[in-house]
Write a structure and sequence with these properties.
The chain is an alpha+beta fold. The chain folds into two domains: 12-41 and 191-417, Naphthalene 1,2-dioxygenase Alpha Subunit, Chain A, domain 1, CATH 3.90.380; 51-170, Rieske [2Fe-2S] iron-sulphur domain (Rieske Iron-sulfur Protein, 3-layer Sandwich), CATH 2.102.10. Helix content is 29%, strand content 23%. It is built from nine helices and 19 strands. The protein has helices spanning 12-15, 32-43, 174-185, 207-215, 220-223, 230-239, 272-277, 358-389, 404-442; strands at 24-25, 48-52, 61-66, 75-80, 86-90, 111-113, 117-118, 125-126, 132-134, 153-159, 162-166, 195-203, 245-249, 252-258, 310-317, 321-326, 330-340, 343-352, 396-397. The chain has a seven-stranded antiparallel beta sheet with strand order 2-11-10-5-4-3-6. α4 (207-215) packs across α8 (358-389). The longest helix is centred in the C-terminal third of the chain and has 39 residues, at 404-442. The chain is globular and about 80 Å long. One of its GO terms (molecular function) is monooxygenase activity. Residues 47-165 form the Rieske domain. This is Aromatic ring-hydroxylating dioxygenase subunit alpha. Keywords: 2Fe-2S, Dioxygenase, Iron, Iron-sulfur, Metal-binding, Oxidoreductase. Its cofactor is Fe cation.
Length: 443
């Protein structure tokens, strides 16, 4: 028996019949050739989240990002120019292709501020707009005009203070890509939450497996049982998990969940450290004194059913960005950057309103370290999953109604790959026809 209402179709999954209810084939998470297709079809074609505008606080601020998910060796510079525009460029000098911005080790990401970018190799210089301004011994070159050799740009757009890039010059604008969810989240006070904690970890599992783990809470009462007091843990395990609601909008999806009572109804439900610091996985119990976080102030996409028991909403923006809101008034983001078919880099960033006193600071720190413990538990199962599905002893797995977003993720990823393969076939067919026509004209 369902604890919360389900759609008239009978289940969340059947509400979107295109998803089907059959077991899902996980070959897409173990096939090296499929991963190469994902790299071209997905990560070179979609908007990719890099971080917040606060990373670039002033004119000349910059950071670099290594992006093997897009292609081997791919590196970009993201900077703020004199007009306040945030730009992105390939991190490559136009002279002989040397990496332009790096410190001691070429593969490490760096950040800082500058007035211009100067190549270590031959001192070619570029301004903050990417224009070439100086060529060492310019007179030694042949018919070289500086205006013809700017840094190669990468499309860069900002939504609600979040920086995105796209390596496809023909891709739709970012705001259109984010669609209804993006529109429905506008106005949340992201700019007020500048207290920032971050984690990065290398995970020996396919990038989709970690997204799978965070898009379903079906596992939480079992896998994370030891994080709660014994009596409460047993109660949660018996209850299981059901979401308040799920929604799918094109390539993107969301789950709305109960929980996160701040403070809990019974103080004995939580551990002593949480009782002392008034915090835990769901964040500090005391909601920050800012506009936009009270239940009746939230943007329409958050807690869309306006449930009184609402605790958290998780939005999955394809391909690899999670934006998760908590009822007590803070949020976090995840990114999953594939580095191979069975490996990726996981990034988590937590954002709070800056603390006003020591107690608030400690409450936020407890939330951050508690989150890390949960993430470690999830990551541990992922590597165990990857090794076993890699044997191909079994390749198809049944998913329950609370795992609907997993179905959607794998279906969407397959659709991108299928469209890419179709475009390649069409292009190859056109080239073959042109070649045949050319050969025929010679006869």
């Amino acid at each position: 028996m369902a604890f919360f209402p389900k759609p008239a179709a009978g289940s969340w999954t059947e509400n979107w019949p295109e998803l089907g209810t059959a077991p899902v084939d996980y070959t897409d998470s173990i096939d090296p050739e499929h991963w190469k297709l994902e790299q071209q079809a997905i990560f070179r074609k979609t908007w990719l989240h890099l971080g917040r505008v606060e990373l670039l606080p002033k004119t000349g601020s910059y950071f670099t990002r290594e992006m093997p998910s897009v292609g081997p060796g791919t590196s970009i510079i993201v900077n703020k120019d004199g007009d306040g525009t945030i730009r992105a460029f390939y991190n490559m000098c136009r002279h002989r292709g040397n990496k332009l911005v790096w410190n001691d080790f070429p593969g490490e990401e760096v950040s800082g501020s500058c007035r211009q970018f100067v190549c270590k190799y031959h001192a070619w210089r570029y301004d903050l707009k990417g224009d070439l301004t100086f060529i060492q011994q310019e007179g030694e070159f042949f018919d070289v005009e500086k205006a013809d050799y700017p840094l190669k740009p990468v499309r860069c757009e900002v939504w609600e203070g979040f920086i995105f890039v796209n390596f496809d010059d023909d891709a739709e604008p970012l705001v259109d890509y984010l669609g209804e969810f993006g529109e429905g989240l506008k106005g949340y006070p992201f700019h007020e939450m500048t207290e920032h904690y971050s984690y990065r970890s290398k995970v020996k599992a396919n990038w989709k497996l970690f997204i799978d783990a965070f898009t379903e809470f079906y596992h939480a009462p079992i896998l994370h049982m030891k994080q709660a007091e014994k009596e409460e843990a047993e109660k949660l395990a018996k209850f299981g998990f059901e979401a308040l609601a799920y929604d799918l909008k094109g390539d993107h999806s969301m789950v709305s969940s109960w929980g996160g009572m701040s403070p809990p109804k019974d103080i004995n439900m939580v551990k002593p450290i949480e009782q002392i610091l008034h915090s835990g996985l769901f964040g500090p119990w005391d909601r920050p004194d800012i506009k936009g976080v009270l239940p009746d102030e939230l943007p329409p996409a958050i807690n869309p059913g306006r449930h009184k028991t609402w605790g958290t909403d998780s939005f999955e923006f394809f391909p690899n960005w999670t934006l998760l809101f908590w009822a007590p008034g803070w949020y976090l983001t995840y990114n999953y950057w594939p580095t191979g078919v069975d490996s990726h880099v996981f990034e988590a960033d937590l954002y709070f309103v800056p603390p006003k006193n020591l107690r608030q600071r400690l409450s936020q720190e407890l939330a951050a370290v508690t989150f890390k413990e949960y993430a470690f538990q999830d990551a541990n199962t992922l590597e165990a999953t990857q090794t076993q599905i890699g044997t191909r002893a079994v390749t198809e797995f049944p998913l329950c109604d609370q795992e609907i977003l997993l179905r959607h993720l794998h279906m969407t990823a397959h659709q991108y790959v299928d469209r890419y393969k179709a475009s390649l076939a069409h292009t190859n067919g056109v080239h073959a026809a042109a070649t045949d026509e050319k050969e025929a004209s010679r006869v």
